[in-house]
Amino acid sequence: MMNDRFWELKKEKQDRMINAALMVFSKYGYYHASTDEIVKAAGISKGLLFHYFTSKIGIYAFLYDYATRFVTIELTTSIDKNENGYFELYHQILSAKVAAIDKYPYILLFLKKANEETHKEALGEITERREKYNHIMEALRDRADITCFAPNVDYKKIGEILDYTIDGLMEKEVKSESFRADLFMMEVDEYIDMIKNMSTKK
What we know:
CATH architecture: Orthogonal Bundle
Radius of gyration: 18 Å
Strand content: under 5%
Structural class: mainly alpha
Shape: elongated
Number of strands: 0
CATH class: Mainly Alpha
Low-confidence stretches: none
Order of helices and strands: HHHHHHHHH
CATH topology: Tetracycline Repressor, domain 2
Distance between the termini: 56 Å
Helix content: over 70%
Number of helices: 9
C-alpha cells in the first residue's frame, strides 16, 4: 500500500504530503476525503501521490499508523513515568500533544476524526491500531490520582470539562493557521489552573 521510496524523499516533502493528507482526512473523514484536495494542498501531482501510495486507503492506513506512532513517541518521551498528580499528568499529556501539533498541525484533529470513523474499508485498516492507541491513552489517564479532588466534585466531569474546553481551543487555533505551541500552552495552563483551584481540596 505504500512504496518504501517515500522515505527516500526529502523530509520537507514527506511532511508536506503528510500534513496535506492529515488536513483533508481530518476535515472530511475517510469516505468523503478527496485525493485531488490532498495533492492540491501538498503542491504535488496526483501521479506522484499514487506513485508512493497505491490507493486512497493506502494513504489513510499509512497516515493513521504514522500519526499514532508519532504521538505515542511524544507521550513516552515527554511524560515522567512516576508522575500521577491529576493536573500535573494532564499538563504533561497535553504538552506532548502540543509538541505533536507543532510539527503536524492537524494530527490530533485527524486522530479524533478517525476515532469516529465508521466506513468499513477504513475500519478494516485501522481498528487494531486504534484499539492499541486508545488503550495507551486510557492507561495514561488512569494513572492520575483522584484523591486531590474535594469530596463533592465529580472528577470524571472535570476531565470532560477540560477536554472539551481544550479541544475547542485547539481546533480554533489550528484552523487559524497562526498556531504557536508556546502561546497555546500558556493559554490552556490558565484553564487548567483555574479548574484545579475550583475543584481540589483546600
